[in-house]
Amino acid sequence: MSSRIIENKVDIDYLQKLDPSGEFRLTACLQCARCSSGCTMREETDFLPHQLNRMAILGLEKELMGSKAIWMCVSCQTCFSRCPMQVNTPAMIDKLRGMALDAPGELKRVKIFNDVMLSSIKRFGRTYDFMLMAIYKLRSGDLFTDLTKLPAMLRKGKFNLFPPRTAGRKSVRGIFNRVFGRREQR
Amino acid sequence: MKYSFFPGCSLESTARDFGMSVHAVAKALAIELEEIPDWTCCGSTPAHATDAVLAAALPARNLLAAEKAGRDVVVCCASCYGRLASANYELAKDEKLRSEVASIIGQEYSGGLKVRHLLEVLIKDVGTSEIRDLVVRPLKGLKVACYYGCLLTRPPELSIADEPEDPRLMEELLEAVGAETIEWPYKTECCGASFSITRVETVKRLCSEILKMADESGANCIAVACPLCQTNLDLRQLDIEEKFNLPVFYFTQLLGLALGLSNEKLGIGKLMTDPTKVLQFC
Ligand code: SF4
Ligand code: SF4
Fold first, then answer.
1. Do B85 and B73 touch, CB atoms closer than 8 A?
2. A–B CB contacts, 8 A cutoff, strictly below
3. What pLDDT sits at residue A155?
4. If you placed Cys at B270, which of A38, A156, B59, B96 could pair as Cys (CB 3.0 to 4.6 Å)?
5. How far apart are CA B79 and CA B84, in angstroms?
6. What distance in Å separates the CA atoms of residue B88 and residue B96, rounded to the nearest whole number?
7. Residue A121 belongs to what H/E stretch?
8. How confident is the model at residue B105 (pLDDT cuts 50, 70, 90)?
9. pLDDT higher than 50, residue A1
10. A12-66: per-residue pLDDT in tens?
11. Which of B11, B35, B41 to mutate to test the interface with A (most CBs of A within 10 A)?
12. Is the bond preceding residue B155 a cis peptide, omega within 30 degrees?
């Protein structure tokens, strides 16, 4: 164990790539695990927040990219709020999700859902739940979950059957095009 | 009192009852909520999980549209609140992000507006004594577990309450209108909101823990301030084996009932877990 610790040096290059301005404060982490003890997903995930931080410092890129943890995180911010050193683990996780092309296994659904919702926003300027659910279900193959609730939800007027119309949608489309145009250049 | 208002997508679809009760209550309390012209989606979790600039640009577009009026921006959906408040905070302090976002939306937003949650406006601007005077139907017999979830008090810089781990705004409000509020330890636990569609098992686990704790602490209903919390805690009660029968109200619905507004105006009929039994007491 001790030799492993000595071998594992801080990977400056990786830190530069992950967090060029140092805003996540990863090197301030004390490994006290206060973050992890309150993590909403601690029972289901493969790595806890303090472990993700250490992996990042050591440049374990492959492990981070393939981890369930970055897709399992529910963005509840508990870890960040309780950290005595203000290490912003949720922001790092967001960045990692943006860098990872896909989620492993069943967690792919999280990525598919995010993509489908973003395309709804891009198209209508707002979310259009009804279409979002339909497309998500087709793309994820998860056809039947919650289908039995649909009639009651429709009856109670919980879904808009028609897409939202907002004049702002054109400018939203422009925002998407410019943000993603830049990402491709990078 | 006049504010710029950001409804957010859910107040017009899955949380229509929240939207209805917000407007009804605002009217009764003479709060003017002027919708931000041409508002668009805040981007929610998918945007921040995908790109930091996108996650700041989508709220910034709305804040810019509100800037002309120069009033505080009021948000009700906790998720929208989190996105707008966080973009506002980041843009005010991070010059690089500010200029990047400016080049994306074609105009600079400086982060000068205040983004506030309705709950905080009710307590700080209207005041509980003012509200108490308007009560026509005190909520006697209601034992409410006030549930804040994660987005209203985290991270601490954006918290609507001074004590992020033990907020009391909803308690103050509901006690002022005659309800009893219970002490319980899960008021800021997360319900797994962003997974409500993709990982139902996770959400069921988290929600059943929250419902169980509320039940064991003696609550007969739950009050929430977030469309995602409401949907998860209310709808998932159908899936969880243990039967709790805890109606999950928006805080605005309870306030509205105390102010004498009708069930129809407050969208009470849209709740999945039937509230009639709980409401017959008051
Ligand atoms: S709470 Fe903060 S300092 Fe402690 S292990 Fe977690 S990230 Fe590191
Ligand atoms: S933000 Fe993610 S990593 Fe942090 S406590 Fe919540 S679920 Fe865990």
1. no
2. 150
3. 74
4. A156
5. 9
6. 14
7. helix A108-124
8. very high
9. no
10. 999 999 999 999 999 999 999 999 999 999 999 999 999 999 999 999 999 999 9
11. B41
12. yes
Q: Are strands B2-6 and B73-75 parallel, antiparallel or unpaired?
A: parallel
The amino acid occupying position B207 is C
Q: Return d(Cα A142, Cα A165) in angstroms, integer.
A: 28
C-beta atoms surrounding B68 within 10 Å: 10
- Residue of A24, A29, A54, A82 to test ligand 1 pocket, by largest number of atoms within 8 Å of CB: A29
Ligand 2 near A39 CB (within 6 A): yes
Among candidates B89, B98, B57, which has minimal Cα distance to A179? B57
Sign (positive or negative) of CA dihedral B153, B155, B160, B164: positive
Answer whether A81 sits within 8 Å of B156, measured CB to CB. Answer: yes
| pLDDT of A106 strictly over 60 | yes
Q: Does A100 touch chain B (CB under 8 A)?
A: no
What are the residues whose beta carbons fall under 8 Å from the beta carbon of B143, sequence distance 6 or more?
B179, B180, B181, B182, B218, B219, B220, B221
**Chain A: residue whose CA lies nearest to B164:** A81
Strands B143-147 and B180-181: parallel
Q: A33, A91 in Cβ contact below 8 A?
A: no
Q: Which two tokens stand for residue B275?
A: 């509230």
**Cβ contacts of A128 within 8 Å, gap of 6 or more:** A120, A160, A163, A164
Q: How many of the other CB atoms lie within 10 Å of CB of A5?
A: 9
Band (A8; pLDDT cuts 50, 70, 90): low
Q: Is the CB of residue B90 less than 8 Å from the CB of residue B82?
A: no
Two tokens, residue B106: 């074609």
In 3D space, the residue among B45, B109, B108, B20 whose CA is nearest the CA of residue B73 turns out to be: B109
Nearest-5° Cα angle at A63, A45 to B191 = 25
Q: Work out the number of other CB atoms within 10 angstroms of the CB of residue B32.
A: 12
Interface membership of A3 toward B (CB under 8 Å): no
Provide, as residue numbers in chain B, all residues whose Cβ is less than 8 Å from the Cβ of A179. 51, 53-54, 57, 104
